Each structure stands twice: as structure tokens, then as C-alpha cells.
Amino acid sequence: MPHTLIVINPGSTSTKVALFEDETPLAEVCERHSRMELDACGGVGGQLALRAGVVARFLDEKGVDPASLSAVVGRGGLVEPIDSGTYRVNATMLRDLGATASEHAASLGGIIAARIGEEAGVPAYVVDPIVVDEMDHLLVAHPDDDAERPVGG
Questions:
Q1: N- or C-end of the chain: fewer Cβ atoms within 10 A?
Q2: Does the global pTM surpass 0.85?
């Protein structure tokens, strides 16, 4: 049985939404937001209704009943630093995302996903939140000598 997913990516000036069946994209939209429209929200945290409305219209226009989804996925925002991967949205994550929603639009992705997931009775996830930092300290030969030094060092 295929898995149907809705994926939500709130960016600084747009909200992107895509519908997938397994790995196959079925539909997508990228709604751009004007500076006036965003400023009228009083900051990023105030944009929740605006961006959730984009997702609701998308689902309605595509005739998708949220209860038919297998899961809802949002872009991960500012949470405690974690490894890359997929994380189920929980109360602790929602607290972190809510506290940082005024700083970065991506924090709204997990919040919107959780709301839709709760209403539809399906799980909500975030994937690779923007706080992921898995940079390895690589050693490279320095051009002035034979010593190995960390990249950027």
C-alpha cells in the first residue's frame, strides 16, 4: 500500500507545499508572499495562519482529505541541535518551535504539520531541521608545510 505524504516548507518569502505518493511527487505549489503581506502579520510568529491557509487551500484544491494521508512532514526549524534525520513532532519539539517561530519561518513547518496531523489522526514529522550540524573536522595538508591542519583552521 502506498504512503501519501504532504510536505510543508515555509521559507522567508514563500510557502511551498507538495503531495507525494511514496517518492513520487503528485502536486506542488510555491506561494510567494509579498513584503506587505508578511509585514501585516507582525513578524514571523504571526504568519502561522497565513501559511497554514496556504496548506489548507492546497489540500482543498487537490481534493485531499487529510485523514487519507499517511503522515504530514514539515521543514524542521530551530530546535535543540540534533543529528540529521526524520523526527516525530512531540510536545518538546513544539515548545522549541513555538519559542523560535518569531526568528525563522522554518519553525512554522513542524507546527503546521503537527496541527494537521492531530486533526487527521496521522503522525507529523520534521526532516533535517535547520540546526543540523554534522560537519566533520577534516585534516588537510597545509600548503606552507607538511603539517595537517583542520579545515578552516
A1: N
A2: no
